[in-house]
Amino acid sequence: MLSEQKELLCEIKDQISVLTLNRPEVHNAINMSMRKQMEDIWDDLNVNDDVRVVIITGAGKSFCAGVDLKERKEMTEKEVLRLRERGPVIQGKILNLYKPVIAAINGNALAGGLEIALACDIRIASENAIFGLPETTLGIIPGGGGTQLLPRLIGDARAREMIFTGQRIDAKTAETIGLVNRVVPHGNLMEAAMELAEKIKGNSPTSIKNSKKAINRAREVGLTEGFLYEAQAYLACIPTRDRVEALKAFAEKRKPVFTGE
């Protein structure tokens, strides 16, 4: 299935959804129309049982350059304040999506574009990708979750340096500091993302959902409370058909067929 809109492409095939930011002429900068479409599509993907894994990427030479600054310049201060008061809505939807989200970063991931990638579960980058949070050079701060997500991913000191300087780093450096899981040749990016998605989608959707919830919870609580939440997430898997199917398949020496029930 291919859903085609002006700023967004969403293709669903074999339980994998590929979401493509589609404003290549402006490096996939996010305008208000695109923002609304993205909010809606994440809600739709969350309840679509035909989707088990989501890949997000960009059309053209960039992943995403952040918000559309030309449009933002025309907005009133009141409009900007109202928008920012909502917080990082898109990033929150990605973080709380029941399905794993893979960012296939095909080029520049800057400002809000990097913040979208930070909200994803796994990041695979093209060798020509560039990363940065340049907001402090524009008189603002990373307001799409950057100050919260980046330190959790690469550590406090490195995050402070990237944010305070607004510096950009290349893909190799991003891999070294743990910002991305791996770097691949540009021509192999989607192949690598699809290969990973295929590995994930064969596992129990219920197990994946509860694993993601437990991992997310670990960001918010101490170890003792985290262990308790993990136990609850584990127990939620016990009465499921997927668990019964896994045990049956093991006994029969075959690959399990999971339904998410």
What would you say this structure looks like, in words?
This protein is α/β, with parallel strands linked by helices and 261 residues long. The chain folds into two domains: 2-201, 2-enoyl-CoA Hydratase, Chain A, domain 1 (Alpha-Beta Complex), CATH 3.90.226; 205-251, Lyase 2-enoyl-coa Hydratase, Chain  A, domain 2 (Orthogonal Bundle). Helices cover 48% and strands 18% of the residues. It has twelve helices and eleven strands. The protein has helices spanning 32-47, 69-74, 77-85, 89-95, 112-119, 146-154, 156-165, 171-176, 189-201, 205-218, 223-237, 241-251, and strands at 2-4, 8-13, 16-21, 53-58, 62-64, 101-105, 108-110, 122-126, 130-132, 168-170, 182-184. A seven-stranded mixed β-sheet has the order 1-2-3-4-6-8-11, sandwiched between helices. Strands 5-7-9-10 form a four-stranded mixed β-sheet. Helix 5 packs across helix 6 (146-154) and helix 6 (146-154) crosses helix 7 (156-165). It is globular. The mean pLDDT is 91.
Structural class: alpha/beta
Q: Any idea how many domains?
A: 2
Please report the first level of CATH classification, the CATH class of the largest domain.
Alpha Beta
CATH architecture of the largest domain: Alpha-Beta Complex
The main pleated sheet reads as: 7 strands, mixed
Order of helices and strands: EEEHEEHHHEEHEEHHEHEHHHH
Classify the fold: give the CATH topology of the largest domain: 2-enoyl-CoA Hydratase, Chain A, domain 1
**Percent in helix:** 40-55%
Indicate the mean pLDDT. Answer: 91
Estimate the strand proportion. Answer: 15-25%
Q: Give the radius of gyration.
A: 19 Å
